[in-house]
Design brief:
Alpha-D-Glucose-1,6-Bisphosphate, Chain A, domain 4; about 160 residues
C-alpha cells in the first residue's frame, strides 16, 4: 500500500505499509549493510554507505546506474528514537539542480496489526519540480525497501 501526498509545494509526504515489524523496517535505515540492498530508484545500486548512527553522527552514500554516474548524498542525524522515529538532514553532493540544498527528512515507524506504517516527510524543496523529481526516486526506493524488509521479516520468523 502506498499513499503520496503533497501538503505544500516545498514538501513531500510518502506513506508505505510493510508486512514487517517496525524493528526490521527501522534497521533498514540504521545499518549500512541493509541500506546497500535497497537504497536508490529501480535500476540503481548503492555500493557505498557509511553510517555513524547516533544523534550528531553523519551518513554518506552513493547510488548509481548504467545511465547515471555516481550520485553521492549525505547528512546528519538530528533525532533517533529506536524503532519509532528518525530525523536527519539530506543533501546531494553533486552539481545537479538540487546541489547545495539541504532538506530535513522525518520518518516515523508505526506498528499496526503486525505491520509497519512508514511515514516519510522531506522538506523544504526549492520548487515543485525538485520535489516531484524526488517523489519518483523515493517511491521506487521504497518499493525495493518493502521487498527487502518483508524478506528479512520472513527469515526472522522462520
Amino acid at each position: 500500500m502506498t499513499a503520496e501526498k503533497r501538503s505544500a509545494d516545498n514538501e513531500l509526504l510518502i506513506v508505505r505499509t510493510f508486512d514487517a515489524p517496525p524493528a526490521v523496517v527501522f534497521a533498514l535505515w540504521s545499518s549500512a549493510e541493509h541500506m546497500k540492498r535497497w537504497m536508490g530508484p529501480k535500476n540503481f545500486t548503492c555500493p557505498h554507505v557509511m553510517i555513524d548512527f547516533r544523534v550528531g553522527g553523519s551518513y554518506r552514500a552513493m547510488i548509481q546506474s548504467a545511465e547515471h554516474d555516481q550520485n553521492w548524498f549525505g547528512g546528519v542525524y538530528r533525532e533517533i528514537e529506536q524503532d519509532k522515529r528518525l530525523v536527519f538532514t539530506f543533501a546531494w553532493d553533486n552539481e545537479g539542480p538540487s546541489a547545495g540544498i539541504e532538506t530535513l527528512v522525518t520518518i516515523t515507524f508505526e506498528e499496526r496489526d503486525g505491520k509497519t506504517i512508514q511515514t516519510f516527510h522531506q522538506t523544504p524543496f526549492a520548487n515543485v519540480e525538485r520535489r516531484d523529481s524526488h517523489l519518483g526516486g523515493w517511491s521506487e526506493a521504497f518499493d525495493k525497501e518493502r521487498i527487502y524488509a518483508e524478506k528479512i521479516a520472513k527469515e526472522h520468523a522462520a
